[in-house]
Amino acid sequence: MKRLIIWCAFLMQSLAHSFAGPIPRVSNDRDFVAVGHNGGYYMVSSDSGKWWRWGLVRAPVREPKMFMQGYGDDAIAIPFDVRGRVTFAPVYIYTIRPENVQRRRLEALIEGVTTQAEVRSLFGRPVVQSRVRGFEVWFYEIPVYNPFEVFPDRS
Q: Which residue in 34, 38, 43, 44 is deepest, having the highest Cβ count within 10 Å?
């Protein structure tokens, strides 16, 4: 009985830690891209409801459509703690696969180390600033172009 109580307490503590912030860290998540020991980011499709469940509904995402001549917007969400440091893994919400430039910029962010000033020097001024579950989140708009949406019926 004592072992069961200790095991349940350990399980509850580990679950509380992984779901405490706006972006829950789940082991073996296929959307998480690990970078080094203490870094990484999420790459979530705009079709996925995952970013909505995380509370990132203010992300400026627009699908590239034919009536917009193939132009659209991806979004990057970066959460900060009260000290102004990146507190959880950033989230890249993509409509089409991101370029390597965006990946390198995301790889430069380290949880618990990178400050708001460093993020601003890498990404510029955020398009939207919001609060999600008590954390400040900066949203960046990344313009994308899908040439197949301009003339979708041509080969």
A: 44
